[in-house]
Amino acid sequence: MALNAPVLVLKDSLKRESGTKVHHANIQAAKAVADIIRTTLGPRSMLKMLLDASGGIVVTNDGNAILREIDIAHPAAKSMIELSRTQDEEVGDGTTSVIVLAGEMLHVAEAFIDKHYHPTVICRAYTKALEDALAVLDKIAMHVDVNDRAAMLGLVKSSIGTKFTGQFGDLIADLAIDATTTAGVDLGQGMREVDIKKYIKVEKVPGGQLEDSRVLKGVMFNKDVVAPGKMRRKIVNPRIILLDCPVEYKKGENQTNAELMKEEDWQVLLEMEEEYIKNLCAQILKFKPDLVVTEKGLSDLAIHYLSKAGVSAIRRLRKTDNNRIAKACGAVIVNRPEELQESDVGTRAGLFEVKKIGDEFFTFIVDCKDPKACTVLLRGASKDVLNEVERNLQDAMSVARNILKNPKLLPGGGATELTVSAALKQKSSSVEGVEKWPYEAAALAFEAIPRTLAQNCGLNVIRIMTQLQGKHANGENAWVGIDGRSGDIVDMKERKIWDSYSVKAQTFKTAIEAACMLLRIDDIHANGENAWVGIDGRSGDIVDMKERKIWDSYSVKAQTFKTAIEAACMLLRIDDIVSDMVEPMLAMPLAAMALVLVCRLAVSGDYFPTEPTRTPK
Questions:
Q1: Distance between CA atoms of 525 and 516, rounded to whole angstroms?
Q2: Smallest Cα–Cα separation from 398: which of 311, 481, 500?
């Protein structure tokens, strides 16, 4: 064995890229994703129309919604999409800004990669720039009184002014503030926590006008009472019992068989079941409820006893809806009727009512006293409109929640980014070593947000940016930015264009940390063993052939390869042609004849002879 024999560690099928090539590929992929949604930033943003695989259409300018629908292959681009989703989950807004900023951070880093700067040096400079940027945010942030509805309304309106619902004035902002204020829990020190996913339900009902939307101080769900003709559909000040157990005869853990020797035994079994259900209902009725709601089943016999006592009942309700009812009316969900107590009965609801909207029945438990859960009822012309309104409402509620949790404001219209950029440029002179230049580049990258706003307004970007940089150069005009609608350079305080501190801080953190992560990748290993991926000839999609059941016969494919290669070899070995034909294009018909011969041999299954073949005349 030779001493210098190569050692194979990776499989032959494994594709590997490393070094500068990986950095450039990752940066280009990130820039491509940023360019896709760059035009959706600001109040003059464009909309994107997305067609999904099932033929559905989504029209939106929400960055996260757009990137979620796009099918992307490059791993760095997928990482950018994950970035937007994380931003949406954390603070609910700034999904477009974070992608644009991360793309710009990587774009300015490309020049340093070309100059052979080590990625760790660039990342160190970016991390230092992030720390200084957050310090600037703390310096220029302004506290807001969460009880001042006008200030809250202005902030939420300016945050969703870029959305589809911005044309409807204060409607969505009012809904968001009412919902988050209703479901908020006091944390002390003037801060409140709001769990939007758990305790604020958005119910979309097509029909009517968007202006008919409202916040219900209680819960609404798509259910009717179990016996419509016998049970009341409207009760004022109801006593409500919530159950997480079936009100029916108990079933065995496994399959149970009973052997009856006499006909009377069957009657005994029926009486036992009836007695059991009667006792369950008696334990419930002992507390004189007006409404019983259970997440499980309700037998016909139980319905009979409850309706006879004048009690309305709803069965098979979702656990999430049951939890909201408990928060709204003060009830406690009980697992066994035997454990019911007077304190478990909900008495804070003002009205129980079942209404028919369109073709379906909806239950309303509303007018609750001090509810900790609520429902936002959205009305609109179509499902597509309602879906977009819901996305805008979720963003608005997230902004309102962020203010309640951390009541600080920052100037909008790119003013914050310009202030941070100017402060970092001034501080870059005190940064020593090779980190100075990446630090200064990071300062320039923050200007991507106001520059994009100016582009989307159709303004002269160079002139606008020069004017803004001049106003921010001395660090005194921290509130000067671009009015995204008119394109004017104005004071954000006067126009009441705000950004939430939580959203802006999270945007900076997420963008810079993601840029550093992608810069530190210097090796990509791709498994090349995906032999079943091909093109669907009908749709043109790149799919797994196993899933689509698109097959070829092994014999046909093997014979095709053999015949084609042997035919090519035969034609390449011909170096002389003798013929009485006088046409100038002599070789063409002869080659065609040879191919015909090849095809005939392929069909017959014969192999080519090893001896030279005489070309037919």
A1: 20
A2: 500
Strands (E), 254-349: 291-294, 312-314, 333-334
Query: What is the spatial distance between Cα 153 and Cα 176, in angstroms, rounded to a whole number?
Result: 9
Greatest pairwise CA separation for the chain in angstroms: 114
At 264, list the tokens. Answer: 């009377």
Instruction: Provide the percentage of residues in the chain whose pLDDT is more than 90.
Output: 36
Q: What is the pLDDT of residues 142-159, one digit of tens each?
A: 888 888 888 788 778 877
CATH topology of domain 16-144+410-524: GROEL; domain 1 (1.10.560)
Q: What's the CA gap between 415 and 482, in Å, rounded? A: 7
Instruction: Please give the Cα distance from 64 to 362 (Å, whole number).
Output: 32
Structure tokens at 258: 């009973």
Dump pLDDT digits (tens) for 96-125: 999 999 999 999 999 998 898 998 999 999
CB 140 within 8 A of CB 411: yes
3-state secondary structure of 271: helix
Task: Give yes or no for residue 381 having a pLDDT over 90.
Answer: no
- The Cα–Cα gap between 537 and 547 comes to 14
Can you read off the two tokens belonging to residue 477? 């005009």
- Does residue 611 register a pLDDT over 50? no
* CA distance linking residue 415 with residue 411, whole number of Å: 6
Quote the CA–CA distance of 138 and 362 in Å, as a whole number.
47
> Mean pLDDT throughout 196-204?
90
Average pLDDT across the chain, whole number? 83
Reported as type and span, the H/E element at residue 451 is helix 448-456
Q: Residue 218: its pLDDT value, please?
A: 93
What is 219-251+264-370's CATH superfamily?
Answer: GroEL (3.50.7.10)
Paired with 604 in beta bridges are none
* CB neighbour list of residue 450: distance below 8 Å, 6 or more residues apart: 413, 414, 415, 417, 418, 464, 465, 468, 481, 482
Cα–Cα distance, 189 to 253 (Å, whole number): 51
CATH 3.60.40.10 fits 149-216+377-406, yes or no: no
- What amino acid positions are annotated as catalytic residues? 62, 95-96, 395
Of 37, 34, 35, 56, residue with least CA distance to 46: 37
pTM summary value: 0.71
Domain-by-domain residue ranges, the chain? Answer: 16-144+410-524, 149-216+377-406, 219-251+264-370, 539-617
pLDDT tens string 268-310: 888 888 888 999 999 999 999 999 999 998 999 999 999 999 9
